[in-house]
Amino acid sequence: MEDGQHIPLNFERLSEEEMRQTADRMFERFNARRTVRHFSAEPLPLDVVRQCIRAAGTAPSGAHKQPWHFCLVTDPDIKKRIRVAAEKEEYENYHRRMNEAWLDDLKPFGTDHIKPHLEDAPALIVVFRQSWTPDAAAASGKSQNYYVQESVGIASGMLLSALHECGIATLTHTPSPMGFLAEILKRPAHEKAFLLIPIGYPAEGCQVPDIQRKNWNELATEHGPESAH
Asked: Do 72 and 123 contact (CB within 8 A), yes or no?
């Protein structure tokens, strides 16, 4: 590469045994991660949450445009406004927008348009995607971003993983359409809500649906020399 400054890579190579131990530990930790809909009101250490957001901000992105912004919400009044607006959209979803197959698929989870977790959780993180970035030097006043959905999706996954590793439960919520989030949080025109994440400690006695994850053959297909025979 001819353009741009480069620095030496900071990379720690592990032994194969360390790799296996790390992979096993990661799988056990991540396999225990569950979506939580019942939160304790106990406050979180926000310095930990901020550091998790910083970790999410290290995600790869198209042309390193970093097309994301995270809003950390702990104000009870704002959380209430978000809940009211979300429940309005969710009512429309459950009563008009979702087809019967979708509603049937949701029945095992016992969800409906009522979302108390948006107020019960001590904090909300709203992930915004930036389809473009303001650029005064450009004729259009805009700088194009690339692979925005993919980039923000990766960052969101890293955020969920970081929070889980720190002992913080999460819920991924997409009360589509989500335009109300940008309005309530006063975000600029180039930002659109991507994901709403209530976070906190699980409520005492919290229960979650008994789900099963895909087995290896359903999850992945290998295309190596041995699989070709």
From this structure: yes
Q: How many CB atoms lie within 10 A of CB 15?
A: 8
Residue 184 domain flag:
yes
Query: What range does the domain containing 184 cover?
Result: 34-205
Please report the beta strands in 156-221, taking only residues with DSSP state E, as ranges in sequence order: 169-170, 191-200
CATH number of domain containing 83: 3.40.109.10
Helix-helix angle 46-56:148-165, to 10 degrees: 140
Structure tokens at 146: 């690339």
d(CA 140, CA 79): 36
Q: Mind giving me the DSSP string for 66-126?
A: --EEEEEE--HHHHHHHHHHHHHHHHHIIIIIS-HHHHHHHGGGT--S--THHHHSSEEEE
Separation between Cα atoms, residue 102 and residue 49, nearest integer Å: 33
Residue 227 pLDDT class (50, 70, 90 cuts): low
Domain-embedded: residue 147? yes
The tens digit of pLDDT for each residue in 67-111 reads 999 999 999 999 999 999 999 999 999 999 999 999 999 999 999
